Amino acid sequence: MKKPTPVDAPDRLLPKAPTGIAGLDEITEGGLPRGRPTLVCGAAGCGKTMLAAEFLVNGALQHGEPGVFMSFEESSDDLVANMRSLGYDLDVLQAEGKLVIDQVKIERSEIEETGEYDLEGMFIRLDHAIRRIGAKRVVLDTIEALFSGLPNQALLRAELRRLFHWLKDRGMTAIVTGERGENTLTRYGLEEYVADCVLLLDHRIVDQVSTRRLRVVKYRGSAHGTNEYPFLIGTNGLSVLPITSLRLDHQASGERVSTGVRGLDGMLGGQGVFRGSSVLISGTAGTGKSSVGASFVDAVCGRGEKAVLFAYEESESQLIRNMKSIGIDLGRWRALGLLEIHASRPTLHGLEQHLVAMYDIVRASKPDAVVIDPISNLVMSQADSSLQATLIRLIDFLKQEGVTSLFTTLTHGPVTDVFDSSGVGVSSLMDSWIVLANLEFNGERTRTLQVVKSRGMPHSNQVREFLLSDHGVELVDVFVADQRVLTGSTRKLREALEARP
Amino acid sequence: MNAAARAAATHPEWQLKLYVAGHTAKSMAALDNLKHICETHLAGRYSIEVVDLLVNPQLAAGDQILAVPTLVRKVPEPMRKIIGDLSNEERVLVGLDVRPYVPSFARAR
Hints:
The complex is a heterodimer.
Chain A: E1 16-17, H1 24-27, E2 32-33, E3 37-42, H2 48-62, E4 67-71, H3 76-84, H4 90-95, E5 99-103, E6 111-113, H5 120-133, E7 137-141, H6 145-149, H7 153-169, E8 173-179, E9 197-206, E10 209-219, E11 228-234, E12 237-240, E13 256-257, H8 262-267, E14 273-274, E15 278-283, H9 289-302, E16 307-311, H10 316-324, H11 330-335, E17 339-343, H12 351-365, E18 369-373, H13 375-378, H14 386-400, E19 404-410, E20 432-441, E21 444-454, E22 463-469, E23 472-475, E24 480-481, E25 484-485, H15 488-499
Helix pairs in contact in A: 12-14
Chain B: H1 3-10, E1 14-20, H2 25-41, E2 46-52, H3 59-62, E3 70-75, E4 80-83, H4 89-96, H5 104-108
Parallel strand pairs in B: 1-2
Antiparallel strand pairs in B: 1-3, 3-4
């Protein structure tokens, strides 16, 4: 087999053609190898055609690279209809000369074979389509259909080999799709011909939850992410997680923002948390996590900034009503357009789909702060090892966007164990971690709050009592007597005693 | 040429199209073989149109041409296709439906 044309030495980097598919360009560090064919393989219904079509559409719309879609399976009408459901109008693209769809039909029954032939007709068709619009990208979906249409396999293989060289010679960035075989990547061994870049798509059901995964099996001459990455086909097309960069290189802001709880700001060096940092509020049921979250939102909107609240426990109106009871009027901010509340059932989608929805919302409304209440609910359905990685991506993404984020998480188990678990094992990813707990003592319950960690700032190591009053979350001043901190009624009693003349 | 022959020339019973790509050995062979077969079996009842895809590449998609040479029987319907240089006369005749397929062992009797 011929070696691929060597990369220009001064450049050193392989030229790449961005796919425009969210996440895929990050994994492949820039896109597919420019001017070479890439094999996309996977079982039926795993999104090969969709990926290929998006690659063409994005090329035409975003990068000024017209494309030819040669379909061996789907009729062009079907393809147009399918892509329309994702918001792409292929008819318009065709009319504008940015796309050509050529449907190749081959009916074994109406073909008789006698004597020698070659597939020059296919080359001529492709060449004609490429010339007509000055195409830079080509998709062959799924060329393996030829194997069932033409009896002479030896000839077909020789012609395919010729075709891939032909595409390379013309500098076409091409996607060739292939059906997954039993023990091979593709049923007819296309990987033998397309050796530069191979993507494998997979669709599997784990615990009745379907997840699609993508893996870069091979990418000659380039670094690439090697993991299996979850991907989704959503309303905006394909997106591969991570949507963010694999690097940890976001800009850290030195600016501080209030948490909305004055006493808590005081515990965090008097100024609150860093802008763009992530805050975790953990606690067992009924410790006031949502209230702290709402205070945070209230403070954000009070500064005239935008906030997005993802609620996975309460509906929008329930949340607004409940927060009103502690004197936080979220409805007002929503009316002013400063607050968006997105309430949904965690069970509505798989985790990945939730994350993509969040990405889309954050991208669209560009908030200054995001509150997710609670993240533990998102994960209850899956005991998935990829969970933590997925959450890292979300946190990373928010940081990259400079969004201050607050996550609440429900912890189980006894209060004394509170440090052992942040519920979903993400505490190490968070910049600040605040633990809420109910202390039962002397026949009463006292809400307490403590800052377990807060990166890059001095913070109080005290366990503070706090109250949910009708004007928000309030930290009670520390009351020390007899060398111990008093809480609850003991504190009140002591205060009353001391206040007496 | 009598009236019947003229009618046959404009609307022949067998309308055949041969798709080729340039004057290659294979396409010349195909055309020669086709002419010979037609003269032998369909004399006066056929027309042959040769389409060179190098000259008219846009015509390839219409008849779904992938392989060359490809012989397309447009009329009579339904459409039939024979790919290759048409070197096997028997198979061409079967492919065109000029002659029903008779297995060789049956013919021997």
